[in-house]
Amino acid sequence: MVFGVGFGGIILIIILVILASSFKVLREYQRGVVFMLGRFWKVKGPGLILIIPIIQQWVRVDLRTIVMDVPPQDVITRDNVTVKVDAVIYFRVVDPAKSVIQVEKYYAATSYLAQTTLRAVLGKHALDELLSEREKLNLAIQQVLDTQTDAWGVKVSTVEIKQVDLNESMVRAIARQAEAERERRAKIIHAEGELQASEKLLQAAQMLAQQPQAMQLRYLQTLGNIAGDKSSTIVFPVPMELLSALASKPPEAK
After folding, report:
1. If DSSP codes are grouped into helix, strand and coil, which group holds residue 244?
2. Segment (H or E) for 177
3. What was the pLDDT predicted at 132?
4. Phi then psi dihedrals of residue 250, to 5 deg
5. Which of 20, 46, 105, 204 could make an SS bond with 26 (beta carbons 3.0 to 4.6 A apart)?
6. Which of 52-61, 223-232, 244-253 has the largest mean confidence?
7. Secondary structure letter of residue 228 according to DSSP
8. Cα separations in angstroms, 252 against 242, 244, 249
9. What is the phi/psi pair of residue 49, to 5°?
10. Do 239 and 217 touch, CB atoms closer than 8 A?
11. 75 vs 4, residue with greater confidence
């Protein structure tokens, strides 16, 4: 009798343990992919779900956005410059069933695909585009990744290039290029200023030529400027008309 009660108690405990293990609680951001005798049955959750032991198996899937740091990649640009580029990727699972059935480990698969895609996309662009057009490159990488991971039930929402590392010789070359560019702009600005000044001087000369009185006023203004100077030597400009009049005057008779 004691043996019978003890055996029945053990059976009851086993049944209770099985029933307790059959109930699962999934949080709001979790889903359970349930298989019935090895075949896909349904996606359950969130909340309390029931899993029949032995007959059913399940896999827990997290639906939150995952932030993945892509390791630095050696990229050869279109103009044959080697750089190291690292990026960060934001993605999440949108179809739990596909993320379990279509790929073994969606996180590792997305990571490896991101590394190869980063090298492939950036290798089609020149170094100047890589440094100045990051928004366009981020969008191009995101579109390629999202297309590839769609079959896995994964949505790539954002790709950001974090850093582009150049070797020391390339940094010096870019610095020399920037210095030459600034010098070129300075010369162009100086030349444009000389051109504008010459145009204004031409307009002033034409206006003075039309009004002889203005030339006399300019002459008096120049004398005033010289008088205010503290120089010990003063040179008086003499109008050419005065010299012409003196040269044409006949000599006086003795």
Report:
1. helix
2. helix 168-210
3. 86
4. -70, 150
5. 46
6. 52-61
7. T
8. 18, 17, 9
9. -125, 160
10. no
11. 75
Token pair, residue 76, equals 């050869």
Of 227, 248, 245, 251, the C-alpha closest to 237 is 227
- Helix pair 106-122, 134-149: axis angle to 10 deg: 140
Tracing tokens 């999934």 back to the chain, one arrives at 26
Token pair, residue 51, equals 């899993």
- Bridge-based pairing of strands 39-44 and 30-36 is antiparallel
User: What DSSP state is assigned to residue 54?
Assistant: T
Instruction: Check: CB of residue 79 under 8 Å from CB of residue 127.
Output: yes
> Is pTM beyond 0.70 here?
no
Distance CA 163, CA 160 (A): 9
The predicted structure's pLDDT at residue 12 = 81
Identify whether the C-beta of residue 162 lies closer than 8 Å to the C-beta of residue 87: yes
CA 189 to chain centre: 30
- Taking the C-alpha atoms of residue 88 and residue 160, their distance in angstroms, rounded to an integer, is 5
